[in-house]
Amino acid sequence: MFYTSLHIESDLDNIVIVENFIDSLMEDFSISENYKGILSVPLLEAVHNAIIHGNQSDKSKKVSINCQIMHKQITFSVSDEGDGFDYKYILAEALENRKTSGLSSIELLCDEMEFINQGATIIFSMQIPLQMPQEREIAVLSEKEHKQVVKKAW
After folding, report:
1. Which of residues 148 and 107 earns the better pLDDT score?
2. Among 50, 111, 115, 146, which residue has the fewest nearby CB atoms (within 10 Å)?
3. How far apart are the first and last CA of the chain?
4. Are 22 and 37 in contact (CB under 8 A)?
5. Phi, psi (5° rounding) for residue 152?
6. Angle (deg, nearest 10), helices 36-49 and 102-109
7. Most distant CA pair in the chain: distance in Å?
8. Distance (Å) of CA 128 to CA 37, 45, 58
9. What is the SS3 string spanning the chain?
10. Three-class SS string for 127-147?
11. Which backbone phi and psi does 65 adopt, to 5 degrees?
């Protein structure tokens, strides 16, 4: 199992950080470019919604992204510091009648989707072919902030 997280300020300019995060995951786990859209669209939509709707673009609030990879399943959770929203009302409406496409895109591209914390956190999973390396280079900072690369066996 692999777990990583990312925390960004609620600023749409930080979407590029999330795109780089996705690129790193794709490279680290040898995910084919054919799956880039399937991987990135739901995550970028969830982060966009968290910034705009959850945190109201308040730069003092953070968006937290967690990623767990186990077997060939990738699970993301995206949390904001807002009050949540009535996701049951939106999800009860037929896909073709929804006013926005963000949640619909996530729902269509993912195998599982759920909300917790009154809608302030969305969790979604998808099956994607990937290779789990036996060893992984991990960069760590020492107490004196000297960067060193270590290898961690799985």
Report:
1. 107
2. 146
3. 8
4. no
5. -120, 125
6. 140
7. 56
8. 12, 18, 34
9. CEEEEEEEECCHHHHHHHHHHHHHHHHHCCCCHHHHHHHHHHHHHHHHHHHHHHCCCCCCCEEEEEEEEECCEEEEEEECCCCCCCHHHHHHCCHHHCCCCHHHHHHHHCCEEEEEHHHCEEEEEEECCCCCCCEEEEEEECCCCCEEEEEEEC
10. ECCCCCCCEEEEEEECCCCCE
11. -120, 125
Helices 15-28 and 36-49, interaxial angle, to 10°? 150
Average pLDDT, the chain: 86
Q: Does domain 2-153 have CATH number 3.40.50.150?
A: no
What pLDDT does residue 134 have?
55
The confidence band for 22, taking pLDDT boundaries of 50, 70 and 90, is very high
Render pLDDT for 35-94 as a digit per residue (tens, 0 to 9): 999 999 999 999 999 999 999 999 999 999 999 998 889 999 999 999 999 999 888 888
Structure token digits, residue 58: 């308040």
Token representation of residue 121: 């956190």
